[in-house]
């Protein structure tokens, strides 16, 4: 489960694909998500981001690139790998990188972000990606020991307006802060041009999910265009 510095550096300037399906959807099956992930790797994905313990396990067996794992519990507040228990379970399932809520909000188990990250490092050796919603989140997460900083929660925590596409201004602000951590652009990146813009704004790598791995949404875009 340990990721070398060389493997992490190999993600620089590359695409990370998020393979996730929502509960109740036809594709909401761990093996299906692993197959989607494997297809993305064939297309050039340098890493995979996946949700759920079984999904992580199946995906680890299906791909030979780094796996970023998370565990969603709930729908509001801090729900992306919200506790130390969740984070360690994600690492135990095989994730090279544990993605978790990296905001400054109170966590359900009462532990701080620093305590959560420290527990993952000490007990599993996995790296930690902090999903942030603002520059202040990113600064605090870097100080707490996060190995990667993500913009995943930009527009979802009340600190910033939700942009139509990626929050390029936030990406640029975090990049300019020079935190010394890989900056992963994530959130509402729906086209190759937007992915390139995120990279040009200073991102280390870019995560794309919905626009690649969520057929229902992609179909809806086309359907709306034809009906419009």
TrEMBL record:
<comment type="similarity">
    <text>Belongs to the NanE family.</text>
</comment>
<keyword id="KW-0413">Isomerase</keyword>
<keyword id="KW-0119">Carbohydrate metabolism</keyword>
<dbReference type="InterPro" id="IPR011060">
    <property type="entry name" value="RibuloseP-bd_barrel"/>
</dbReference>
<dbReference type="InterPro" id="IPR007260">
    <property type="entry name" value="NanE"/>
</dbReference>
<comment type="function">
    <text>Converts N-acetylmannosamine-6-phosphate (ManNAc-6-P) to N-acetylglucosamine-6-phosphate (GlcNAc-6-P).</text>
</comment>
<protein>
    <recommendedName>
        <fullName>Putative N-acetylmannosamine-6-phosphate 2-epimerase</fullName>
        <ecNumber>5.1.3.9</ecNumber>
    </recommendedName>
</protein>
<dbReference type="Pfam" id="PF04131">
    <property type="entry name" value="NanE"/>
</dbReference>
<comment type="pathway">
    <text>Amino-sugar metabolism; N-acetylneuraminate degradation; D-fructose 6-phosphate from N-acetylneuraminate: step 3/5.</text>
</comment>
<dbReference type="InterPro" id="IPR013785">
    <property type="entry name" value="Aldolase_TIM"/>
</dbReference>
